[in-house]
Amino acid sequence: MKKRKMAKKKYKKEFEVTPWSVEGKVDYERLTKEFGLKLIDSKILERIKKHTKELHFLLRRNIFFAHRDLDWILDKYEQGEKFFLYTGRGPSGKTHIGHLIPWIFTKWLQDKFDCELYFQITDDEKFLIKEQTLEEINKNVEENLLDIAAIGFNPEKTYIIQNTKDIKLLYKIAIKIARNVTYSTASAVFGFKKESNIGIIFFPALQAAPCFLPSVLNKKNIPCLIPAAVDQDPYWRGIARYVAPKLGFYKPAQIHSKFLPGLKGEKMSSSEPESCIFTTDSEEDVERKVWKALTGGQKSLKEQKEKGGNPDICLVYKYLFYFFEENDEKIEKIYSECKKGERFCGECKKYLSSKIKEFLREHKKKRNIAKIEDYKKNLNILEMKI
Ligand code: TYM
After folding, report:
1. pTM above 0.85?
2. What is the pLDDT of residues 231-248, one digit of tens each?
3. 89, 128, 239: residue to mutate for ligand 1 pocket, most atoms within 8 A of CB
4. 252 Cα to the center of ligand 1, angstroms
5. Read out DSSP for 146-202?
């Protein structure tokens, strides 16, 4: 009995994923089972491809790997019922490359399926869980908004909602959600403790509210699809999908990505700036950080030639695979050359640095001319309807 208890403890400790922290090496298949998600398989990829003609590399490479009710979203779409997209940002600091993964994918979905997008900025969430003032968080919001606008979402079909400023749009829906979720249900999902502040206990109702906003505004149910990394799942599993039938709404569907790790192997986190690539990093920052990244290379060139490297544990390879090398043939070549000892870490690091610098140059150009007002102006129309 004692042995079993200990085994359970060890199992639990291997990794943990919550909306507020990711610890350990995530086993995505096990997480899929624990959260009750479905893996994205070739059948559903074929269905998507029927509409999009091509598959985004984040789908081809299984980086978007799990979903809930994506098949239902496609059924509805095929029956002529359009869905909207919902995603977001909690402005705790600067934007890093990991954040861009769901946003770039969301833009692709918006273009391919011609969807409306609701983008929530949860400045309240970060105020409640971080030791930052509202003024500091607002500075992050201003910076993050430039990155969001730089993605190039369709301004005619995108609504950016900042919770502390645009609360009128969400509040009535949020209190209806909150009345239907007990403390014990929310606590089981989010692990609240006695010392948790009462703000964060209510907050999940606010993150769930945009799932239903278009249905309220249009006075008819509209399917919702949420692209995000898998850490956001508790909001949908534990709150939005749980209350949807009680409030007469469709349950939101989800499509989830894995996490881009930090350059030193752990979950990318703004509190470890040397292991993150931020959108505002200089070329020197990029070179320094990539140079220090963990690789799967051998100790010497001689050994690398003899034994080959291990791209499966190499962070430089991971960055190319997840983001910076979209070309499948090239990424396969890098993988096999490394394995055969025909490629060396210095060469890969240089290649990754050049790819990141090229991406950031373009992104910064778009950031500099970004017009946030284009997205904000649409909110007046929504506010008149609520
Ligand atoms: P936030 O700001 O922590 O993260 C923003 C988005 O980025 C994803 N993400 C990552 N994706 C890949 N690799 C990483 N290393 C990585 N780190 C973060 C997150 O899953 C998220 O999609 N509470 C939310 C804000 C929010 C939201 C939403 C997110 C409000 N409504 C609806 C998604 C969908 C938050 O703090 O995200």
Report:
1. yes
2. 999 999 999 999 999 999
3. 89
4. 17
5. HHHHHHT--GGGEEEEETTTSGGGTHHHHHHHHHTS-HHHHHHHH---TTS-HHHHH
